[in-house]
Design a protein that fits this description.
Order of helices and strands: HHHHHHHEEH
Shape: elongated
Structural class: mainly alpha
Mean pLDDT: 81
Helix content: over 70%
Strand content: under 5%
Largest sheet: 2 strands, antiparallel
Radius of gyration: 19 Å
Number of strands: 2
Strand order of the largest sheet: 1-2
Length: 197
């Protein structure tokens, strides 16, 4: 069997697995979609009043949040993980999946740390607002990837119910709230000083 056939078969298997798990519970899913959508819209609107690097950062942040508003009910990222699982089985490396999962997790964590440190350097003139925004986006969207990887030790923790939601939902909502606070803080500052960029 050639590699294209293996990949195609894994994609079909991944699609079937994705169909079984996509979608969030109604209440938490609705709140996540609204949170991502409103925050993303406000980020994009605020970005139009900024210049240079900050405009790029806030536009990119807004685009990511709007994408997440669509991704939340569809769980598009879940297809990547189900496809990976099927591909691992088809290619015979499923036995080392925990090492691969750990590597991906460490990679995501490293990207988040590098992003936060880069923000600290690039946006040091307005470090607080930009850093809060970056941390919020990193937590909310990064956790989407962490959930998809499904590391057994972590999955047991973040899959626990906590009030009306799961721990994972609270973490994701916390990231959205940080990004929302960042944008509201910036908008308040702009109202106080309209010429500020």
């Amino acid at each position: 069997m050639d590699q294209f056939a293996v990949i195609w078969s894994a994609a079909q298997c991944g699609f079937d697995g994705w169909n079984e798990i996509w979608g969030d519970p109604w209440l938490s899913g609705t709140l996540l979609v609204l949170g991502y959508g409103i925050t993303g819209f406000l980020l994009l609107k605020t970005a139009t009043r900024l210049n240079g690097r900050e405009r790029v950062l806030w536009t990119l942040g807004g685009a990511i949040m709007v994408f997440q508003a669509f991704n939340t009910p569809l769980d598009l990222h879940a297809f990547v993980w189900t496809f990976g699982k099927c591909l691992a089985k088809a290619q015979g490396w499923y036995e080392i999946k925990r090492q691969v999962q750990s590597g991906v997790f460490i990679g995501l964590l490293s990207v988040a740390v590098i992003l936060i440190l880069s923000c600290a350097v690039l946006f040091r003139r307005n470090i607080v607002g930009n850093l809060v925004l970056i941390i919020g986006i990193a937590i909310s969207t990064g956790f989407t990837g962490v959930k998809g990887i499904s590391l057994h030790g972590l999955a047991e923790y973040y899959s626990r119910p906590l009030g009306p939601f799961f721990v994972a939902d609270w973490i994701e909502l916390g990231g959205i709230c940080l990004a929302f606070l960042a944008v509201m803080g910036r908008r308040w500052k702009m109202r106080k000083q309209p010429a500020n960029t």
